[in-house]
Design goal:
The complex is a heterodimer of chains A (about 650) and B (about 140).
Chain A (H helix, E strand, L loop, with lengths): L4 E6 L11 H9 L5 E6 L5 H13 L4 E6 L2 H15 L6 E5 L11 H19 L8 E3 L5 E4 L3 H12 L4 E4 L14 E2 L4 E2 H14 L3 E4 L2 E9 L2 E8 L15 H4 L3 E3 L8 E3 L1 E2 L11 E2 L14 H5 L12 E7 L1 E4 L4 E2 L16 E3 H7 L20 E8 L14 H15 L4 E6 L9 H8 L4 E14 L2 E8 L4 E6 L1 E6 L1 E2 L4 H8 L26 E3 L9 H18 L6 E3 L4 E3 L9 H5 L5 E4 L4 E4 L9 H5 L5 E3 L4 H11 L2
Parallel strand pairs in A: 1-2, 1-3, 3-4, 6-7, 6-18, 7-10, 18-28, 20-26, 21-22, 21-26, 22-23
Antiparallel strand pairs in A: 5-29, 8-9, 11-12, 12-17, 13-14, 15-16, 19-27, 23-24, 24-25, 30-33, 31-32
Helix pairs in contact in A: 1-4, 2-3, 4-16, 5-6, 5-13, 10-11
Chain B lengths: L7 E6 L3 H10 L8 E6 L7 H10 L3 E6 L10 H18 L7 E5 L5 H18 L10
Parallel strand pairs in B: 1-2, 1-3, 3-4
Helix pairs in contact in B: 1-4
Classes of the chains: A alpha/beta (about 650), B alpha/beta (about 140).
């Protein structure tokens, strides 16, 4: 018995029939075959219309449905639901867009009628080739992996943990809290940064829902939204975390030391160390690259000093596999290397510092105990804070990092507080002060300081009087100024290794090397891969406030998709590859924007992971053997339309 | 003699161009009824064979409209279309068909006016070229 097609013509309250001859359209549709039933209604999308449609589908035993009405963008979902309620597969529907793309764009009724006939007949032919598509559901793992335990990572971890999810928080450093944990104060409140974060960091450490992996890295990622399998490499700390109480007896006795990167090279640390005073978790690690014991010598001074037998030289790197449903990447950012900026002579002139150096210098737990001092031990009489270093210039970085003006203003306050006699110069190109609190903060910070509006280029030379800065003002005049100390605000850039992390997780980078967001406005916190969210500076430079907001948003996105006990509905209109006709040419593999196609080496054919597939059909268009089939947009279905619209 | 009314098939991607066409309608912009749309999920779904099928079936011209480069809902489907299109144009010419009968362009969801313009231009262009009659062996 042939399938019965119902062509339902909606008058759209007279909008459509004002121009289109209903009888003519339905008569032409009927000509397609005896199995076509035509019916009309005044307004199908109304509650009464939908009930009528359902009733007619059942009464006439319709198998597939054409709704000739508005755009499918408007009401396809509405009518799919009606079909589903009648027991039909919702994909047995085709809409003929005779309102937006016919009546509304055509002046002459005769032309509109002809076009409507073509569209309705095309839809009728097409729907007869429709196949029911399965509603596909996926059981999901509700747990979450977070990579990077800076401000964004810890916010994401807490939000997820509060929802009762198991969180695996992976941090490559021995301590958590990111850059902010190393600051003294944060703008605009000038609140004490360690005080602001310490409680939260302790909560993270003590949270039973959070498994914290410090000194660890993600080694392998498999799977997709709802079902990821992650391998974490836990590097040997050589310290038993369960035994160590963080008494600090071990590091003074250690005989070797190296430059401490956590103080940006302004101090030294031992082979066994905590990154800085107050770092959490307060558990040291042994840097095996310099530890004598691991370099062929018989030293066990730390072991002897430890009152709790927590030193464990035999510890080995360990791989741990965890299963999660979603991932949040919050791997942070770093400063652009100012030695790459011409004329600054950074690295050659001793008293030119980066902003991160300066953060540590003004920090009470930093290398100078919070005192602003020159390399010769004296206090600077003048400090120049240089904005936009390697920023807003295409030869370096073409963007504004957005937070440097604010932290330079913070620095101005910190200097004034500590050294009221010191002259402060802010070399700026434009002041970037968005938000409700910034302008007031700036006005107050700039009191009793000097603003220098320069064109962005400055040359620094060392003279007996200090550091001579030669620059051009915005109005074109050449100027010079000699100061004792220079602090640079370099562009904020993705951390080294971001490309590798991107490859590991299979996500895209943007042209500036940050992780690319799914959509810069509508979805700025999802990566290019579903189930992998972004939070904080790795998506682009931003301050604490925005990082935390983005982290909460990213967690929310995962929490709302990965609900325990609830299945995830995934796209039905995917592409499949027919095993028998696939010739194994692999053309499709390189075309897929979602890396959803892989090659089955045993069967020598391509296979689609239908969970990753989004149904664009780009592979189907290229398949030379016709093995790839784009469901709901098959060749036959599109051909049926082509034939009718070219009559 | 009445003027020649060409038949033009327009493959529209679901997320940009189809939406742009809808908005042309909502704005009551006039679009030549010579152009008849077929919705595909992505311009990347359009097989070169489909273009020939349309020309064989009686179309005098084919439009493929997709999201602007960089804006593809499916990330990069439109780049694949662009690559194919360059080859397709050569093939079309080898068949002795004027390459202008096949046109790829970008129409975003907001470009209702552009949709109206592109369809009008295409209709005028194909009208000036005359009937194709690809299937009747005249070209």
């Amino acid at each position: 018995m042939s399938k019965k097609t119902g062509v339902f013509f909606c008058r759209c309250g007279g909008i459509i029939t004002d121009k289109v001859n209903e009888e003519a359209v339905l008569a032409e549709a009927k000509k397609i075959g005896d199995n076509v039933v035509t019916l009309s209604h005044n307004l199908l999308c109304s509650a009464e219309g939908k009930a009528w449609l359902a009733e007619q589908i059942k009464k006439n035993r319709i198998d597939n449905v054409v709704v000739a009405a508005c755009s499918p963008k408007q009401h396809e979902k509405t009518f799919m639901e009606v079909l589903e309620n009648t027991g039909l597969n919702p994909h047995m529907l085709q809409m003929a867009n005779i309102r937006e793309q016919c009546v509304w764009m055509t002046t002459e009724p005769e032309e509109a009628t002809k076009k409507a006939i073509a569209y309705v007949r095309a839809a009728t032919r097409r729907v007869q080739k429709h196949e029911p598509l399965e509603k596909r559901e996926l059981t999901v793992n509700p747990d979450i992996l977070i990579v990077g335990a800076g401000m964004a990572g810890i916010e994401a971890a807490q939000t997820s943990s509060r929802a009762g999810r198991k969180v695996y928080l992976v941090e490559k450093e021995p301590c958590i809290g990111g850059l902010v944990a190393r600051f003294e104060e944060v703008y605009p409140s000038m609140e004490c940064a360690p005080c602001m974060v310490a409680t939260t960091l302790q909560e993270i450490i003590q949270d039973n829902n959070i498994d914290l992996f410090t000194y660890s890295e993600v080694k392998d990622v498999k799977g997709y939204l709802g079902n990821f399998e992650i391998t974490i490499l836990k590097k040997a700390k050589s310290v038993d975390e369960t035994a160590c109480l963080g008494c600090g007896e071990c590091y003074p006795v250690c005989p070797v030391s190296t430059s401490n990167k956590y103080d940006d090279g302004l101090s030294e640390r031992k082979a066994i160390y905590v990154p800085f005073n107050g770092a959490l978790p307060n558990i040291p690690v042994i840097d095996r690259s310099i530890c004598l014991r691991f370099n062929g010598q018989d030293c066990n001074k730390c072991e002897e000093a430890c009152p709790l037998d927590a030193i464990d030289f035999s510890q080995e790197d360990k791989e741990v596999t965890v299963n999660v449903g979603g991932i949040i990447l919050s791997t942070g950012a770093e400063l652009y290397d100012p030695s790459l900026v011409k004329g600054l002579n950074y690295g050659k002139i001793p008293d030119i510092y980066t902003s991160m150096h300066f953060e540590r210098m003004i920090s009470g737990n930093g290398p100078t105990g919070g005192e602003i001092v020159l390399k010769n031990g004296q206090k600077p009489r003048s400090v120049a804070l240089i904005h936009c270093v390697g920023s807003r210039k295409p030869e370096y970085n073409d963007y504004c990092s957005g937070i440097c003006c604010m932290y330079n203003l913070k620095f101005a306050r910190s200097i004034k507080e500590r050294e009221p006699q010191t002259k402060i110069y802010n070399f700026y190109t434009d002041l970037c002060l968005p938000g409700k609190e910034s302008q007031k903060f700036a006005d107050e910070s700039l009191l009793n300081t000097m603003l220098v509006h320069f064109n962005g280029d400055v040359e620094a030379t060392e003279t007996p009087e200090g550091i001579k800065l030669s620059y051009m003002t915005k109005d074109g005049g050449n100027q010079e100024l000699t100061v004792d100390m220079v602090v640079l605000a370099p562009a904020i850039v993705p951390p080294q290794g971001t490309k590798e992390v991107g490859d590991l997780f299979g996500i895209e980078l943007d042209e500036r090397g940050f992780f690319k967001e799914d959509h810069n406005l509508m979805n700025p916190f999802s990566s290019s891969v579903e189930g992998i969210q972004l939070a904080g500076m790795i998506q682009g430079p931003k301050g604490v406030e925005e990082s935390v907001a983005q982290a909460a948003a990213s967690s929310g996105r995962l929490l709302s998709r990965l609900v325990p006990g609830r299945v995830l509905e995934v796209e039905s209109k995917t592409t499949t590859i027919d095993e028998d006709s696939c010739g194994g040419c692999k053309i499709c593999i390189g075309l897929c924007p979602y890396s959803a196609i892989s090659f089955d080496i045993e069967k020598m054919i391509s296979t689609v992971n239908e969970i990753l597939c989004k149904g664009c059909g780009t592979c189907a268009a290229a398949c030379p053997s016709g093995a790839a089939k784009a469901k709901h947009f098959t060749r036959d279905q599109i051909r049926a339309e082509i034939k009718e619209v070219t009559i | 003699m009445s003027q020649f009314e060409p038949k033009i098939v327009a493959f529209l991607c679901n997320f940009c161009s189809y939406e742009g066409a809808d908005r042309a309608g909502s704005a009551k912009l006039q679009v030549p009824s010579n152009v008849k749309a077929i919705r595909v999920m992505c311009s990347g779904r359009v097989e070169p064979e489909m273009v020939f099928e349309a020309l064989t079936a009686g179309a005098d011209g084919v439009l493929i409209l997709g999201c602007h480069p960089g804006d593809c809902h499916f990330k990069e489907g439109n780049y694949k279309t662009m690559r194919r299109y360059n080859l397709l144009k050569q093939l079309v010419e080898e068949f002795g068909i004027e390459p202008e009968r096949v046109r790829l362009d970008w129409v975003s969801a907001s470009e209702a006016t552009k949709f109206a313009e592109v369809t009008k231009e295409m209709t005028e262009k194909v009208r000036s070229l005359g009937p194709l009659n690809f299937n009747s062996g005249t070209c």
